[in-house]
Design brief:
The chain is of the alpha+beta class. The protein has four helices and nine strands. The chain has one domain. A nine-stranded antiparallel beta sheet has the order 2-9-3-4-1-5-6-7-8, sandwiched between helices. The chain is globular. 33% of the residues are buried.
Length: 177
């Protein structure tokens, strides 16, 4: 089946504000692996990360709200359809995005805005790998590697140096909907 997740790393806002903006509340439960619908963790970079397993569609309204008076970088991964996406928002405005959709083409890669300089080296490395070993979708990894490079985490790996159960389970605030 594979992963289908959305990660949103917010810098410049308190955790409580991120929770309020995303309409979630904390619980007293923690997990070693983010398997609940929504979990949160403070990253070594100082950004607060929402790891979303339920409503997993990149939503500009959510990015807008979470990035007001802050900076965010988000990464969407769908291993089932081989789609990956990374974007950056600051003060409610999208700065750039990188999107791959294998259903359009194995080498599909769409960029919008002025993407970070790291994209070129990641792209060069993975396009070369795709050309030499075309049996897998390496272009899928470009947005994911960029998020890891800028956001400090890979969607399917542990946080280096984290405590045994770093992921706080968050509950959707039913009163705010």
């Amino acid at each position: 089946m594979g992963f289908r997740v959305l990660l949103i790393a917010v810098k410049g806002k308190k955790q409580e504000t991120v929770h309020n903006d995303y309409s979630v509340v904390t619980t007293d439960k923690y997990e070693s692996i983010p398997e609940s619908d929504v979990t949160g963790v403070l990253l070594p970079s100082g950004a607060y990360l929402l790891y979303i397993n339920d409503e997993i569609i990149p939503d500009e309204n959510v990015f807008y709200k979470l990035s007001k008076n802050a900076y965010l970088i988000a990464c969407y991964v769908n291993e089932t359809t081989m789609q990956s996406f990374v974007c950056s928002w600051k003060d409610g405005i999208e700065e750039w995005s990188v999107f791959h959709d294998a259903q359009q083409s194995i080498k599909h890669l769409e960029t919008i805005g002025e993407v970070p300089r790291q994209v070129k080296s990641i792209q060069d490395k993975l396009f070369l790998k795709q050309d030499n070993c075309g049996d897998a979708d390496y272009i899928f990894d470009i947005p994911i590697e960029l998020f890891k490079n800028l956001g400090g985490i890979d969607y399917d790996q542990e946080i280096e140096g984290a405590k045994p159960e770093p992921w706080q389970v968050l509950s959707r605030d039913k009163c705010s909907h």
